[in-house]
Design brief:
Elements: H1 3-15, E1 37-40, E2 45-47, H2 48-52, E3 57-62, H3 67-83, E4 88-94, H4 100-110, E5 115-119, H5 123-127, E6 135-139, E7 145-150, H6 156-163
Parallel strand pairs: 3-4, 4-5
Antiparallel strand pairs: 1-2, 1-5, 3-6, 6-7
Length: 164
C-alpha cells in the first residue's frame, strides 16, 4: 500500500464515529470471559469466570476514587433495577489506593449494585485487559463478550439487550 493510500485509510478511520471503529482495548468481542482469582469483600476466594459463565453478566472494573465510575453509577443502578433479576451485576474493585474495607463503606454509602469483588493481585485487571477504571464488560448467556466500554456515559441498556 502506498503512503498516500495509508494516509487516506487512516483519515477515513478517524473520521468514522467511535461506534463504527474497531475496539481499541479490552477483551475482543466474541471472546470467552477469562478466569481470574479474586476475593469477596470479606476475603473469600472466588473465580470471576465461574460467576460470569452462568448467564448474562455486567462486569464493571471500578475504584472508590474514580470520577467516571461515579458518573456511571446512576446508569448501573437503573440497569440493575431493570435487569437485575435476569442479569448478574458484578463490580471488580481494583487494588489501587483502596482497601476492601474502604470499598465496603463506599458500596454501602452509595448503594453500588450487585456482587462486589476485590482484585487483590490485579489478576482480573490483567486477564480481562482492563484499560482503565469505569471499564464495563457485558457477557452474554453463552459466556462470550458482547460489549466493552470505558467512561461515565455508556449505553448499558443497549449492551445488556445484546447479552439477553
Amino acid at each position: 500500500m502506498t503512503t498516500t493510500l495509508r494516509c487516506l485509510a487512516l483519515a477515513t478511520l478517524f473520521a468514522l464515529p467511535a461506534a463504527a471503529r474497531a475496539q481499541e482495548s479490552g477483551l475482543p468481542l466474541g471472546s470467552a470471559a477469562p478466569s481470574a482469582l479474586l476475593a469477596t469483600l470479606d476475603g473469600k476466594p472466588v473465580d470471576l469466570a465461574q460467576l460470569v459463565g452462568k448467564g448474562p453478566a455486567v462486569v464493571e472494573f471500578w475504584a472508590t476514587w474514580c470520577e467516571n465510575c461515579e458518573h456511571l453509577l446512576p446508569t448501573l443502578q437503573k440497569s440493575y433495577a431493570k435487569y437485575g433479576s435476569r442479569v448478574k451485576f458484578i463490580g471488580v474493585s481494583v487494588n489501587v489506593n483502596q482497601s476492601p474495607r474502604r470499598v465496603q463503606l463506599h458500596v454501602a454509602k452509595y448503594k453500588v449494585p450487585g456482587i462486589q469483588l476485590y482484585d487483590t493481585r490485579g489478576a482480573a485487571t490483567g486477564n480481562w485487559d482492563v484499560p482503565a477504571t469505569s471499564h464495563v464488560v457485558v457477557v452474554g448467556r453463552n459466556g462470550k463478550v458482547v460489549y466493552t466500554g470505558v467512561g461515565g456515559t455508556q449505553d448499558l441498556d443497549a449492551a445488556i439487550r445484546k447479552a439477553l
